[in-house]
Batch of 4 targets.
Target 1
Amino acid sequence: MAKFLDTTGVSHELAQIIKGAKEKLILISPYLQISDRFREMLEDQDRMKLEIRIIYKENKLQPQENNWLKSLKYVRTSVCKNLHAIA
């Protein structure tokens, strides 16, 4: 049976995925936006030397947020112009 999540549910599930990753984490989203909560989680996983790849279509980060993301040693980002999401 399908499981429908509201915003809180999506945030919870994503947090569990990020925290539970052991070897590699690939996140795919049409928009690159990172809340403070997820920022801390990504920093924690970066310290644990977890390879993280973030693929997105449109970057919605502020310049200082982009600089922070680039400072993470084990995080790589990629742009996919043809990425689409259906709601």
Target 2
Amino acid sequence: MTDADLSDDAVWMRRALELAPRGWGRTAPNPMVGCVIVRDGQAVGEGWHAEYGGPHAEVAALRQAGDAARGATAYVTLEPCAHHGKTPPCTEALIAAGVARVVYAASDPNPKAEGGAGVLRAAGIETAGGVEARAAMDQNAVFFHTHSPAGDARPFIALKLALSADAKIADRDRGSVWITGEEARAETHRLRAGFDAVAVGIGTALADDPLLTVRGPVIPRIPPARVVFDRELRLPPGSKLARTAGEVPVTVVAGDDAPEAREEALAAAGVRVLRAPEGIERTLETLRQAGFRSMFVEGGAELAGSLLRAGVVDRLYLFYAPLFLGPRGLSPFAALESPPIAAAARWRRIAAAAFGADTLVTLARE
């Protein structure tokens, strides 16, 4: 569908949706929000929520619009808030600016902030909701998950896999070799910045000795913690993760029967050890209780398979490289069940983009 096929409301909302991700990694636990002020068919003000605790998107756009906001339409990717938090309510700013109409994409799921549309209508401002709602919810999937019943039980799980064209994550020798190129790896660093934690399984931690930090142009407001799923506490105290635990937090999730001596050694290095009951669901419950709202999981095959089998993956970031590793390559999907097509879980494509020679396909669970 082209812009020519869209209503004016949808065209302007898509512009607001383009602005919102400029706050990626900087607004949590608040959502990313974009706003466009339109008068006589022209944008007179644009803004986005740039920083947690700073001006919201509506306020930024109204400041740019100035007097031109009077009688204009405001397009906002999330229902304007109606409560006093770090900043005054956006509804107050819109009313004071004299806008005539407010169009928003998705209703605010936060019970503390909801109800803004009703406040605006009571002040005589026309409102319309639901314009490009799915795109807005996809954009703030972590925020909407957190304010849902599922968000009380476990973190939002995004699983990132770097795959060959035949869906393998390693060659037959299981060597630690990059499958994707520099552009794809740079995008991985940008993605990390939007989550509470970056996680791997102990196999990946031992094989790659990764840092799992965010390195690149996006500097997260709070660097994501590093998490290792490690039932037996095999992470060496001399690993890069343990040695840098004082700089960026590291949490290891262990089994109830993991050796106490290993816990003491990791704790001495500054690593936080959480003990969780058997089972991936119980492990995720433990992590949610520890304060993790979202996790960006990067491997390896065993952990990816466990999460997919349990049906707890909310988003898939699949980087495909243009090479084939054959039947002896390592597949993260080998341990999954093989249901008939009619019973197979369906995923919805959110985006597809090229990063150098590689292709990123982003999927959401239906």
Target 3
Amino acid sequence: MGVIARYREHLPVSDSTPVVDLREGSTPLVRSRNIGPALGLKALYFKYEGLNPTGSFKDRGMAVAVAKAMERGARVLVCASTGNTSASAAAYAASQRLRAIVVVPAGEIALNKLSQALMYGAKVIALRGNFDAALTVVRELAEQYPVALVNSVNPYRIEGQKTAAFEIVDELGEAPDYLVLPVGNAGNITAYWKGFREYHLGGRSKRLPRMVGAQAEGAAPIVVGSPVENPKTIASAIKIGNPASWEGATTARDESGGLIEAVTDSEILAAQVRLASSEGLFAEPASAAPLALLFRLLREGKVERDSTTVVVLTGTGLKDPDAALGNVEPPVELDGDARSIAKALKL
């Protein structure tokens, strides 16, 4: 079942709210077999959100946002996106026979995600400028025309995304010591903190995790304390210069006693390769940012090794495979039989 059916009692839905459901959520919490032990961690888990229907965590919030939009009579959805949100909004619109309009920064959307949005039937507008400019435009569009905005500024997106925190507690039996995740537009860290707090207040967990957010060095407005006019990073999902949920992110950081720091693109790509080659989990570059940050924080003694830590992998590596291919060996081309292959591979 999807997140609305599974967590109805914790969501702002009623009998008049349509049950929008692509079987999102219930993603695996994978215990690290290699990286965690190598780091000396008591327990390291990966929340693999890339196994949601369209390949990212966005589907959780989209299910609730679309359901509430339909409840209000909306027939057209609109969003700004660098990739994941576009695919999610378009898929859920298609499932409910709604119209989807996706505004993307020209030349800055992951091609695989663009193909998803187009295949689901969305009308895609490539806008000159970055994501922040695109978000400004769609917010104005939603204010002036009968369309429902489904970016994370929509509070129902946050409501749906908080269910990932519920799932972690349900599986572990308690909140982890640390929750480490990427921070771009900052809706997800806001949502996780909301979910953990609600479960804690409801008696479902005895403690709260420290929230640790990772930004990319070239797109780290929360870290530097001011908007970044021209954000730059290989991690397109967090290539955002002025997060819409900035306050939610800093609240989660401060209330939990956590932190938000930046990592370089080199650190991100190295972590992406290590995650895939050591754990068999291929995640988008943004998902590797929290793992890269975890490596550094452990070296600096800012994360206790005798802890249970969950790293959130927000989306599949198939979103942007070109970013990964530049950091691995290319295929070996040979003419010959099994003997020549064995010789080349030194079997």
Target 4
Amino acid sequence: MTQPKTSILFLCVANSARSQMAEGLGHVILGDRVRVQSAGSKPSRVNPYAIEVMTEQGIDLTTHESKPVDTIDPKTVDIVVTLCAEEVCPVFLGKVKRFHWPIPDPASDDPALSREDMLARFRTARDAIRGMIEGFKNELE
């Protein structure tokens, strides 16, 4: 296997939903020639709704773990994509190209939201991320 030409790090706060979905989609859409990672400033756990909506796309996140951004070696990253919308995005130090895709956090503690509401929120975020990565793929080629 040849070394990837580019390394992308997707960042959000908890590394539980948006950045995890971006990592999974990135592997599928960008393929082996791009190294894809994700991390967060306050990692928690991979959100079960993120796992479920990615499974709908044939992408398995069950082996993914939330990772702190400070465990990522800056020398292994060429591009950082932050996915925060309403919260403060994590900072990644290093000489990298930076992109910001403000995608609202689909996770919510609102008890008024049903399971179907939550799945709809996660599908919306997943589809937005998919569109951004597909567009980004053209820039990498």
